[in-house]
Amino acid sequence: MSGGTASGGTANGTRKALVTGASGGIGAATARLLARRGVDVWITYAGDQEGARRTAASCAAHGVRTAVSRLDLRSTEDIARLAARVRAEWGELHILVNNAGTCPYTAWPDIGPDEWDAVMDTNARGAFFLTKEAIALLRAARGDRAIVNVASLAGQVGGISTSVHYAASKAAVLAMTRSFARLLAAEGIRVNAVAPGPIRTPMTGGLDPGARDGLAAAVPLGRLGLPGEVAHAVCLLASPDAAFTTGATYDVNGGLRTG
Ligand SMILES: NC(=O)c1ccc[n+]([C@@H]2O[C@H](COP(=O)([O-])OP(=O)(O)OC[C@H]3O[C@@H](n4cnc5c(N)ncnc54)[C@H](OP(=O)(O)O)[C@@H]3O)[C@@H](O)[C@H]2O)c1
């Protein structure tokens, strides 16, 4: 993990967010929207350093502080190092967005133990241990504080185009959301999830074009969602406008699941 590299100036008292997996897709859109709203953003990437730098540059253009770290959520050492760095440089967090995730499109008979572990370790175990570290930083901040977990429609209804391990990991994310919502409510820390349906990002770029078109046709609104449409839901849940909302799941799925 490389260290956080602060850039840009900010007034004292600015809200501070950590957004994982912001080298592209939903995480990048979320970081940019938070920055547009004046929030300092610390972003992470796993392999795409250039993408993360691009995201940070577009955030910094809004005049907020930005920092970039490499983070592999499968590594608890990486997670602890990141938390220590945020503690040393920023001292507090108001917002944690557990966005990073992985979704190999593997048919269930071909999923082996290593791939099962990699998906669960990234999407569920990593999110748990990062949340555990981040709670101390959220406790250090004042005012509205929020964790937003990016789950998935697959975690609610099982995999559609996606894989069994992925769906299981996202169901775990939804269960953790509800657990932490109850555990942290008395301290005023809110914990919510968004559950996107199929969104046009590098992740769905991994589907073959026929499968992607079939998926879009199955969506009642007739298309894949856009990263910015998920980012708006994340930013609402992360903002004081949602001050009475905790333990909730905000569906962003074009009508694929209602009610
Ligand atoms: N796209 C969809 O249709 C959809 C639907 C429902 C839910 N989601 C969820 O939305 C979130 C964002 O996905 P996306 O669609 O924006 O996909 P994406 O563009 O592929 O972004 C995934 C991000 O996660 C990072 N990442 C991957 N493995 C990691 C690891 N082991 N440790 C730390 N970070 C890791 C990636 O880093 P690098 O790029 O640097 O490697 C990237 O920044 C994910 O949790 C995904 O499950 C997506």
Helical proportion, percent range: 40-55%
Largest sheet: 7 strands, parallel
Q: What structural class do the secondary elements suggest?
A: alpha/beta
CATH H-level homologous superfamily name: NAD(P)-binding Rossmann-like Domain
User: Mean pLDDT, rounded to whole units?
Assistant: 94
- Beta-strand segment tally: 7
Q: What is the gyration radius calculated from CA atoms?
A: 17 Å
SS element count, helices: 9
H-E string: EHEHEHEHEHHEHHHE
Strand order of the largest sheet: 3-2-1-4-5-6-7
Overall form: globular
Keywords: Oxidoreductase
GO molecular function: 3-oxoacyl-[acyl-carrier-protein] reductase (NADPH) activity
InterPro entries: NAD(P)-bd_dom_sf, Sc_DH/Rdtase_CS, SDR_fam
Enzyme class: oxidoreductase
Strand and helix map with partners:
Blueprint: E1 16-19, H1 25-36, E2 40-45, H2 49-60, E3 66-70, H3 76-89, E4 95-98, H4 113-139, E5 145-150, H5 153-157, H6 164-184, E6 189-196, H7 202-205, H8 209-218, H9 227-238, E7 249-252
The structure holds NADP nicotinamide-adenine-dinucleotide phosphate.
Give a verbal description of the structure:
This protein has 259 residues and is of the alpha/beta class. The protein has one domain: NAD(P)-binding Rossmann-like Domain (Rossmann fold, 3-Layer(aba) Sandwich). Helix content is 45%, strand content 14%. Helix 3 (76-89) runs parallel beside helix 4. The relative contact order is 0.14. Mean pLDDT is 94; it is low at 1-11. Bound molecules: NADP nicotinamide-adenine-dinucleotide phosphate. Residues 20-27, 45-48, 51, 71-74, 99-103, 122, 150, 152, 196, 198-199, 201-204 line the site of NADP nicotinamide-adenine-dinucleotide phosphate.
